Every structure is written in C-alpha cells, then in structure tokens.
C-alpha cells in the first residue's frame, strides 16, 4: 500500500470537534487505499502553557525535565485522534515517540532526529491497521530519555516519517491554506503561492515565517519529500495548498518570492574591545559555548586600537550572552567597556532565488525603508536574501511597504 503522511497542527486539533474533522479527512485518504501516518501537534496553546509551568517552577530548568513536561501535549492528541478514528471504524493505533522509536540526539529541547525504524509500524499495517497516529515533536535520546525537537517540531516529525516510509506525499494541515508571500496576519494583501522552491522556503522559515519549521524544509530537500502545506478548515482538492518543490518545477516566479520577519530579535554591542587578531574568535566562541545563536555580526571601524562589536541573537538569549561576557571579562579572557542590549528590534528580510541573477534588490529595499523613515541598524545578505534589523515598532510598516514595492500581490 502507498503511504501518506498527514500532519495536523495545534489549531487543527484544538477541540474534540476539530479532531473529528481532521479524522474525517484521514478517513477519506484511507478510503482511497493509503496507509496513513498521522502526525499530531498538541492542542493550540497547550505547549505554551507547559513551557510557562516549567519556567515558573524552575527558571534555570534541567532541560531533560523540560522535555518530559512539554512533550506531553502531543500524547493527549495522539490518543484522542486514534480513539476518534476507531469510533469511525478506521483501524488506528497511537504511538509516542519512544515507542516507534524516533531516535534523536540528546540535545534536549532542540534534538535532531537520527533514525526512525519503520518495522514496528509496517508490521501493524501488514496486520490490517490503517492509520498510525504518532505524537509529533518528541523522540528518545540514546540515554533513553524523552527529547523534543524545538518549537514547531511536529513539522519535522512529519517530514522525517515521510522520508523513512518513502511516503507518496507529506501534507501539512494548518490554519492557513498554504504558504503566502508574507504572513497574511500582517499583510492582508499577501498572496498564496501555488509552488515555492525548497531554497526559498528554507530561507523564509529560518528568517521567521513559522508556517514550517526550518529543519523540516531541510529534511524535505535532502530526502526529496513531496511537501504540501494546506488548510484543515477548507474542502481540499488534490491541487490545493502550496507545493514546496525543486526550483526547476516552477515556471514563472517573481525576483522576490516573499518577505519574512522576526520579532524575537535583540541587538547586542560590546563597546571598546581590543582590535587585534583573535578577538572575534574569542568572543563568538564564548557566546557559542554559552548556547547563544548569533545571527548578524558587524565589527565597527576601530579607533586607537579599540573597536565595537555588534551582533543579533534571539531575545530570550540576551541573559545568557550577558552572563557569558561577564564571565569572560572577570576571567580576563578579554576586556571590554560595556555591553549594550537593545531588545526592541525586529528583523525583516526579502527572499527570492531571482536575486541570483537580478541586481538592484538591495538598493530598492533600502530606498523603500528610507521613504518610510525607517532607520536600518544592521544589514546582512546572502545569495538569495537580504535582511535588516530595525526598530520593532516599524516592523509591520516595513513588511507592508516592501510587499507593495516588490508587487508581491501580483503573480509573475
Ligand atoms: P500549526 O499550529 O498548524 O503548526 P503555525 O502557527 O505553526 O501552525 O503556522 C501557521 C502560521 O504561520 C499561520 O497562521 C501564519 O500566521 C504564519 N505564517 C508566517 N509566515 C507565513 C507565510 N509566509 N505563509 C503562511 N503563513 C505564515
Ligand atoms: N506543540 C509544539 C509547539 O507548539 C510542536 C508543534 O506544534 O509543532 O511548538
Ligand atoms: Mg507550526
């Protein structure tokens, strides 16, 4: 039997009624002759609540116990989905990550999937079971402890299962009917894309578009998984939603495919560090050892042998960075004047593979921001994206102005 993977996000399993609607959709695919692997998220809001409880109990928590707690939301929806399917006379069974087992690294709260043996589930399919419902977001470490894959990780569970079972397709059911030129909650003129290239989706996801977890796109690209994003609230045809695919499969596309943004950024500046070989290596080694994910970096012009070093990182890692820098200073690893942290910034990026062959995108982007009176604090570029750090209060304005200027509401 061909295998299909269907993933339902938090809003799609938020109530018993919605679980029933999702189960009906699964039933339709079963009746077409598929063996289905259903991946479920926790009910929407549940994981946030669990994270909140952990933080309140223990601010410097043990990550193994964080995973024990926050993985639990998916256990509930997996069981409920299996029961709902059984009520509809569809033979179904639920599986927690450790039962499959979804083998991961031991990097708690940000584990990576290493292997998914298929024999357990295939044996059940052979016995006549039609649907394996798997709790998303969770796995088991080599030490035998429960792990989680980072926020949004059920997308990655879904793609990893699609790869392991050579599924015909991996359908991601969510609360929007596909991937848009930008988040439709911020720009009402955002346009749904019928297709988007893996590379573009990868950039959009890693720059803040949370419709797919970045790692899930990476896996889909590597294992050639046919990945589709679609709404669980609308009737669906086989062509519905957005297909994430190789760029060769896309005939026409705009130079800029989309605009992404991230509110959760901070800008930090080490004032007055020695300008000598090795200083950047020392600073960023200390930050990396402290678990700080540095994104943009700027080293300013030096004066009298001293310079300022600026970087951006997730806003919830500022404390960790401050601690690491204070320790480096007191341990005489290196010296600096002061450490500034600006937590009121946002990152806005334009993404498109067309930038490889078109010039002038950066110039246009900077002009648009300047017309709106928005000051650019830090810039980074790659072959297919340009990102700027700006004052957070201008984020929505910047996204809308860029969406307009690049005419993303119109198809190529
Ligand atoms: P789920 O719970 O189903 O995993 P998420 O909240 O993680 O859903 O992702 C869906 C949300 O992603 C949408 O509601 C939308 O607000 C947001 N989003 C951000 N950027 C985009 C984009 N470019 N296209 C579509 N949705 C986007
Ligand atoms: N429930 C997890 C989260 O909220 C995983 C997911 O939904 O993808 O991050
Ligand atoms: Mg998600």
Chart the SSEs and their pairings.
Layout: E1 3-8, H1 16-31, E2 35-40, H2 46-57, H3 63-70, H4 72-87, E3 92-95, E4 103-104, E5 113-115, H5 119-126, E6 131-135, E7 138-140, E8 146-148, H6 154-164, E9 169-174, E10 195-197, H7 198-206, H8 214-223, E11 227-231, E12 242-245, E13 258-274, H9 279-289, E14 297-299, E15 306-314, H10 318-330, E16 338-351, H11 361-371, E17 378-382, E18 385-391, H12 395-405
Parallel strand pairs: 1-2, 1-9, 2-6, 3-6, 9-11, 10-12
Antiparallel strand pairs: 4-5, 7-8, 11-12, 13-15, 13-16, 14-15, 16-18, 17-18
Bound molecules: adenosine-5'-diphosphate, aspartic acid and magnesium ion.
Adenosine-5'-diphosphate binds next to loops.
């Amino acid at each position: 039997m061909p295998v299909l993977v269907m993933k339902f996000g938090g809003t799609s399993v938020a109530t018993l009624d919605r679980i029933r609607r999702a189960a009906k959709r699964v039933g339709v695919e079963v009746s077409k002759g598929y063996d289905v692997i259903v991946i479920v998220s926790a009910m929407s809001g549940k994981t946030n609540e669990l994270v909140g409880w952990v933080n309140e109990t223990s601010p410097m928590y043990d990550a193994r116990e964080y995973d024990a707690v926050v993985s639990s939301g998916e256990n509930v929806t997996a069981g409920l989905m299996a029961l709902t399917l059984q009520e509809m006379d569809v033979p179904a069974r639920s599986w927690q990550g450790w039962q499959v087992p979804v083998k991961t690294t031991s990097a708690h709260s940000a584990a990576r999937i290493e292997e998914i043996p298929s024999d357990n589930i295939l044996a059940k399919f052979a016995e006549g079971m039609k649907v394996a419902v798997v709790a998303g977001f969770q796995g088991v470490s080599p030490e035998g402890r429960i792990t989680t894959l980072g926020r949004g990780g059920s997308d990655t569970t879904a793609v990893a299962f699609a790869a392991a079972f050579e599924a015909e397709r991996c359908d991601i059911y969510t609360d929007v009917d596909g991937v848009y030129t930008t988040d439709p909650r911020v720009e009402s003129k955002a346009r749904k894309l019928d297709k988007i290239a893996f590379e573009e989706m990868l950039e959009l996801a890693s720059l803040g578009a949370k419709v797919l977890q970045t790692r899930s796109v990476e896996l889909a690209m590597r294992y050639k998984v046919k990945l589709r994003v679609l709404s669980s609230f609308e009737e669906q045809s086989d062509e519905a939603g957005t297909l994430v695919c190789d760029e060769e499969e896309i005939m026409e596309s705009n130079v800029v495919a989309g605009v992404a943004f991230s509110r959760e950024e901070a800008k930090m500046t080490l004032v007055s560090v020695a300008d000598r070989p090795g200083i950047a290596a020392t600073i960023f080694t200390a930050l990396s050892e402290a678990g700080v994910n540095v994104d943009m970096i700027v080293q300013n012009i030096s004066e009298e042998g001293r310079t300022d070093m600026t970087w951006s990182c997730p806003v919830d890692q500022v404390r960790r960075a401050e601690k690491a820098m204070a320790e480096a200073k007191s341990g005489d690893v290196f010296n600096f004047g002061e450490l500034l942290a600006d937590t009121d910034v946002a990152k806005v990026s334009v993404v498109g593979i067309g930038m490889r062959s078109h010039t002038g995108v950066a110039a246009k982007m900077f002009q648009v921001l300047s017309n709106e009176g928005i000051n650019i604090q830090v810039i980074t570029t790659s072959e297919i994206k340009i990102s700027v750090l700006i004052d957070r209060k201008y984020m929505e304005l910047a996204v809308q102005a860029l969406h307009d200027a690049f005419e993303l509401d119109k198809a190529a």
